[in-house]
């Protein structure tokens, strides 16, 4: 008997909540990415999005180890000469804390259209509240 | 000696390539020279692909088994080691199928693996 693949529309998706407060950023991101990709399911299929939806709360309270608060830099290039922008993690946390989680998770997902599709199932909130109570999300232990 | 002309043989050999190239893009399915190049190239890829298929599937089965046995508190390597010690010789293909379709069956396998690991 040949290996079976689930149909695109027959994939059951759940919702998970991850509390990032006092958790290390990489661990939060790795757990989240696994859930988004569906690597925790026995029907994992590389060419389909078999993953679940993930809500990350308390993103502003995520932990960085060592001196990364000062030393970790978030870089992007504007395209103009000398247009490299470097922002310290400390400032990212103050201005846009969800970016720390979003960047870390995005970097752990496949760099494909399917990866982008998986990424859209991620919702990050800086505080303890989220508006997805209707989806009945289940708390996920790290 | 009768005189041999090449017409029939040539037509047959060309037809062979063009048939294999049917459905290819533009001239690759219409013109002999382009079709022959495309067919030979595709046969090379197919040869590689038949071998890669075996590796790709094995790694997919391992990912699926790993996902299933982590739900029972075992990593893939511990699980496989446990099955070996328990004398269960199911291959990865079957294990992946059990994991996907038969939850109770997989739980029984996981329990056996755990028991075998606990003994040693």
Report on the structure:
The complex is a heterodimer of chains A (142) and B (120). With 142 residues, chain A is of the alpha/beta class. Chain A has a domain at 15-65 and 98-139: Ribosomal Protein L13p, Chain: A (Alpha-Beta Complex). Chain A is 30% helix and 18% strand. Chain A has 5 helices and 6 strands. In chain A, the strands form 2 sheets. Chain A has a 4-stranded parallel β-sheet, with helices on one face. In chain A, strands 3-4 form a two-stranded antiparallel ribbon. Chain A is globular. Chain B has one domain (7-119): Ribosomal protein L20, C-terminal domain (c-terminal domain of poly(a) binding protein, Orthogonal Bundle), CATH 1.10.1900. Chain B has helices at 7-20, 32-70, 76-85, 92-101, 103-119. The longest helix of chain B is centred in the middle third of the chain and has 39 residues, at 32-70. Chain B starts with 6 loop residues before the first helix and ends with a helix. Chains A and B meet through loops of A and helix 2 and helix 4 of B.
Fill in the keyword field for this structure.
heterodimer; A: 142 residues; alpha/beta; Ribosomal Protein L13p, Chain: A; two-stranded antiparallel sheet; 5 helices; globular; B: 120 residues; mainly alpha; c-terminal domain of poly(a) binding protein; 75% helix
């Amino acid at each position: 008997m040949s290996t079976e693949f689930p149909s695109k529309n027959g994939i059951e998706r759940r919702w998970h909540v991850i509390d990032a407060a006092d958790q290390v950023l990489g661990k939060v991101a790795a757990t989240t990415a696994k859930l988004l990709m569906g690597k925790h399911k026995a029907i994992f299929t590389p060419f389909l999005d078999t993953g679940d939806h993930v809500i990350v709360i308390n993103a502003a309270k995520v932990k960085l180890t060592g001196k990364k608060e000062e030393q970790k830099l978030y870089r992007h290039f504007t395209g103009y000469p000398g247009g490299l922008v470097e922002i310290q993690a400390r400032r990212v946390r103050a201005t846009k804390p969800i970016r720390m989680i979003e960047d870390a998770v995005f970097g752990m997902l496949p760099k494909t259209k399917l990866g982008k599709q998986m990424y859209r199932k991620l919702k990050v909130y800086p505080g303890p509240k989220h508006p997805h109570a209707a989806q009945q999300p289940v708390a996920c232990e790290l | 000696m009768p005189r041999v002309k090449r017409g029939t043989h040539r037509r047959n050999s060309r037809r062979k390539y063009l048939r294999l190239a049917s459905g290819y893009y533009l001239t690759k399915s219409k013109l002999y020279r382009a079709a022959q190049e495309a067919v030979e190239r595709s046969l090379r890829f197919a040869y590689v692909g038949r071998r890669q298929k075996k590796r790709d599937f094995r790694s997919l089965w391992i990912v699926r088994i790993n996902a299933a046995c982590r739900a029972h508190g075992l990593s893939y390597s511990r699980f496989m080691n446990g099955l070996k010690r328990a004398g269960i010789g199911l291959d990865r293909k079957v294990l992946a199928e059990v994991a996907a379709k038969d939850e109770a069956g997989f739980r029984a396998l996981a329990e056996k693996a755990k028991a075998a690991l606990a003994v040693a």
